Amino acid sequence: MTLVFFVTVTISETASVMASSAQPYHFGFKKSKNGELPSIAQEGFMNILQENGSIFLGDTEQKELYLTFDNGYENGYTGKVLDVLKAKKVPAAFFVTGHFVRDQPELLRRMSEEGHIIGNHSWSHPDMTTLSPEQIRTELDKVREAVANVTGQQEMSFVRPPRGIFSGKVLEACKQLGYTNVFWSAAYRDWETNRQQGGGHAYQQVMSQLHPGAVILLHSVSRDNAEALSSIIDDARKQGYIFKSLNELKVKIYR
């Protein structure tokens, strides 16, 4: 005898689930202090990140760091950043927009040739929660194809939603396209080019937030970051930290 069970889902319940998946979030949190983890687990979107396999922390039992840069446009400092990374033998991920790809093919080629990850930051830097899955595909495909034309790199594995604005719908759309969504667990207000405060400021902001498994977000338009990067790397290593590539991130922590 076969038993068949039916589950009734009302229209209102379906609408509620759809609304929940489309709810926009901004990836914000209280910063790490004294090596403790930031407050990401308390911000109300942990389950959405976990359901979609997103990255914001590596192994918090290991003193590993992941250095990532957002490259919306070039402000004259990415070359210096690459010089430091090459000298220090540190891998990084650069999340690029269409503007950067069109404007800076030589820097893009250099990123690829020197072994860094080139990630997708969308073509036009929109709020992707306002886009359909088809529009999201177009935004990401245009970057991937343009990067391939410049560097020969045919695949892209990582995406960072512009401005850290996301929803379950956005993360799922990116995941369906073969991307891992990458957020961060250490960052500061470094993108305002008219509010740069010196390399010492950048150094203090980053070093005060270091914690095991940290994914660090920096913006390449920042003069402060370019000035501080060498000292950040040296002094993080003195504390026992190892810099790894996102391709080496084997343990994703959700807390």
TrEMBL record:
Q: Where is the NodB homology domain?
A: 63-244
Q: Where are the transmembrane segments?
A: none
PROSITE patterns per record: NODB
| PANTHER family according to UniProt | GLYCOSYL TRANSFERASE-RELATED (PTHR10587), PEPTIDOGLYCAN-N-ACETYLMURAMIC ACID DEACETYLASE PDAA (PTHR10587:SF78)
Q: Which organism is it from?
A: Paenibacillus terreus
* Protein name as it appears in the record: Delta-lactam-biosynthetic de-N-acetylase
Q: What is the lineage of its organism?
A: Bacteria, Bacillati, Bacillota, Bacilli, Bacillales
Q: Mind telling me which InterPro entries this protein's record contains?
A: Glyco_hydro/deAcase_b/a-brl, NODB_dom, Polysacc_deacetylase_ArnD, Spore_PdaA
